[in-house]
Structures are given as C-alpha cells and as structure tokens.
C-alpha cells in the first residue's frame, strides 16, 4: 500500500487544485456573462469530450505504461491550466477559451482516470482494494468540501490568476510523486497487442465481448448506468428545490452537511474495506441512498433535508468503492484500461442525459401539476404540499422509487447477485515485474 499511498497523496492534492480552478472559472464566467446557460456549458465541455474518448483511451492505456499515461495526462492538464493563466494575466481570456481548454483537459482525463484505477490492482493487494477505493472517495469528498469554501476566499484575496497558479503547483506535486515511484509491468494474458489500426479497433470492441462473457459484470454496468440516470435528475434539481422555499445560505449549509457525510463514509470505507460479499454492500447502500432521496422529496423541513443529504452522500463511498473493488478483482489487469473506460463512458453518458431532461420535466410537467390549483393539488398535494418546489419534490420521490425498484430487480438477477462467488478473482493470477522509472 505504500506506493499507492504516495500516488494517492499526489493525485488528491492535484484533484483539490483542479476543483478550485473549476469553481473559480465557473464564478468568473457567471460574473462576466450573467448567463446560467453559459455557466452550465462548462459542465458539458468538462464531461462530454472525455466520455466520448473513453473507449479509445482505454485501449491505449492497456498498451502503454500506466504510470507514464498518468504523467503525460497530468502534464497535459497542467499545460491547459497554464494557458488559461497566461490568457487571464494578459487580459485576453474569453469565454470560448475556457470551453475549448476545458474540452482539451477533459480529453486528457479520459486517459488519466482509467490508468489510475487500473494501476490499483498492480499496487494494492486484493484484500485491500476496498480500502484503497475508500481512499479515492475520501479524495473526492475533501475536494468537494474544500474547493467551494477555499475557492470563495481565494477569489477575493488572490483572484482567478492566483487560484490557477495554485492549481499548477498541485500538478507539480502530483508529477513528483509519480516520478518517484515504480509500477510493476503486466504480463499479457488475454489478447496479444500489436501496433496496427485494425488491432486497435479490435481492442476497443474487445471490452464488450469481455463483458458479454461475464454477465455478472455486464449486469453491474447496466445497474449503475440506470442508477446514475435517476440520481443525475435529482442532483441537478437540488439547488432549485431548496431555493424554492429557502436561501442560498441554507443551500450551502445542506450541501456542506452532505459533503461531511461523504467524508465520514469515505473514512469508514477506508478503514473497513467492505464486506466479504461486496455486492451486498452495493445493494444495501444503494437502497439507503434511494430512501434518503425519497425522504428529501416528501417535505420542506430543513433539518430533515440536511439529514437526507448526509445519509445520501454517506452511502456514495460504499456503493462506488465496493463496486470498483468488484471490477478490479474480476477484470484481468491487462484489459482493465479498456473495460474501465467502457464503464466510465456508460455511466457518465447517463448524467448529461439526466441533466437535459430534468429541467424541462420540472418546469413544464411536475411544477404545474403541483401548483396550488394544479391537477394533483387535491391528491398528492395533500401529502407533500403544493406550490413552488413541490413538483420537484414529487420528481424526487418518483426517481427514488425507480431507483429502489431497479435495486430490487437487480438483486433478483442471479448472475449479478452471485458475482462475488461465480466469477473468480483474477488479480492474483497475474505475475508482475518491477518497471523502471
């Protein structure tokens, strides 16, 4: 675990710096345009390019040294950040520059993320994969907690240029940690790699064949894709739900409490590592997360909403950490790059689709239905209330019910429920040798 801990430390510092820059750029764009649409486009350009490139990136990650893929990806992201800093300092930064450079940075992340996850099975003993994934969730939680608070202070004191330069310093720390360690090499066990284009295309499509031969993993992929869609609808509507009856201060407090829940869940996952049957933890905590969304939609009582946020984010490190440990244990290390990239693409595509439909559903369907004189005011309105925000609350309840049903149905599928037992662990079957820096 020592080598992984060094790499994890560098990546955690870098992630925090990236989140600071993302927060600061969002504020800068909104202050200069006053447009929520242009603000939202940052999210699109940050997610979409990397998602679309994932299959190609995964195939190349399996061909190349994963350590050097991470080094080059971090370097590319640092150069895009440096470009933004130079444009800002010279007073030539435009909105389209941010969109373009965010897309380029997203393309580099398409390589960095699968290389990072696939490297874990080379650096971490099988029995500690759950804990290692808990550490990654801890990194996400810390970045979400620190970036908004620290970013707001730094924007006032050192402004956007200073925040970006601080981000560059965090990239340097991540680079040093990667240069100081060695990763083992992988013995190829599944497909022979060649350098021609036909072989590359075959390697990209091979991951689908690999998953079809393992229906338990394929079921896990579809289960999380569906759940990501339902949860994406909820995530994009949290802000309008709370602001419909309360203030931005209350919103920030509730989100901070949610971040605290994620932090505590990450710490527990890191020390515990998950149960022997990891899939049981996935199902159990997914049910708890769905119930917390259901509770959030039923009322407008602020303490209960804060409790809902805490419980939901508390479950995230367990569902994601245990599911990642399953993928890492059951997927041959020499194809993990392309398989993890397919997983990334499928789950992340569900998120922007949810973003696209959530707003229109809330504005044009559910809010009118739950208005004071709406069609459902005399029925469901008697239970959850009527007026602004209650349509979003009803949408929360429906998404929670769908998520609960998806979990129950997934549990009935034997290949997924028994994935821990039926699929052998392949990590220990791969022999590795040290790789020079």
Identify the CATH class of the largest domain: Mainly Alpha
Give the domain tally.
2
What share of the residues lie within helices? over 70%
Q: Which structural class do you get from the secondary structure elements? A: mainly alpha
CATH architecture of the largest domain: Up-down Bundle
Give me the number of helical elements.
16
Radius of gyration: 22 Å
Strand order of the largest sheet: 1-2
Average pLDDT across residues? 84
Largest sheet: 2 strands, antiparallel
Low-confidence stretches: 189-194, 429-437
The CATH superfamily title of the largest domain? MFS general substrate transporter like domains
Give the termini distance in whole angstroms. 18 Å
Shape: globular
> Which fold name is given in CATH as the topology of the largest domain?
Growth Hormone, Chain: A
Can you walk through the features of this model?
The chain is an all-alpha fold and 437 residues long. Helix 2 (36-63) packs antiparallel against helix 12 (336-369). It starts with a helix and ends with a strand. The chain has two domains: 1-181, Growth Hormone, Chain: A (Up-down Bundle), CATH 1.20.1250; 198-422, Up-down Bundle (Growth Hormone, Chain: A). 81% of the residues lie in helices and 1% in strands.
